[in-house]
């Protein structure tokens, strides 16, 4: 019996949770299926922030919060609407997250934990619900929402525990 060490997509605070997987001789690892995360912006806040819903295959998985539009300026503006390739990252203090690739004139744009606009520098924050106090928007339960997103992505890939690269698209709609 061959032993493979595989990465598990649910590692939230650890670089990668290693899982031992036993593969019988002659069996083949299943390739991950491509999938798309869709962010539909649909909530306007008093200070220009925008909230939205994040779905996979038509099912809402989380709510989102982004900074106001400021001409796509690095670290102070939300991401332009569009379709982007994405990858999983798990390095550094932010833990498990999704990074967008190919955002025009931007780099290091991620979907990550955070509850308030001050928790982002142009990235997309993830939570379970959007709240508003005096017109200031915030997210609830960001860490549980990221865990739910990771599980939904594992399910959508058809290969929940995988050493295979994932083919991820993120579509952001105004």
List keywords for this structure.
44% strand, disordered N terminus, single chain, 174 residues, globular
In short:
The chain has 174 residues and is mainly beta. Helix content is 9%, strand content 44%.
Question: Could you explain the architecture of this structure?
Answer:
- The chain contains 1 helix and 12 strands, in the order βββββββββββαβ.
- It has one helix spanning 142-157, and strands spanning 2-8, 17-23, 35-44, 50-56, 59-66, 82-89, 97-101, 110-113, 124-127, 129-133, 136-140, 168-173.
- The longest helix is centred in the last third of the chain and has 16 residues, at 142-157.
- The model is unreliable at 1-25 (pLDDT under 50).
**Shape by Cα distribution:** globular
Give the strand content. 35-45%
Could you list the spans in which at least 5 consecutive residues all have pLDDT below 50?
Answer: 1-25
The H/E string reads EEEEEEEEEEEHE
**Continuous helix count:** 1
The major sheet is characterized as: 8 strands, mixed, barrel
What is the end-to-end distance?
51 Å
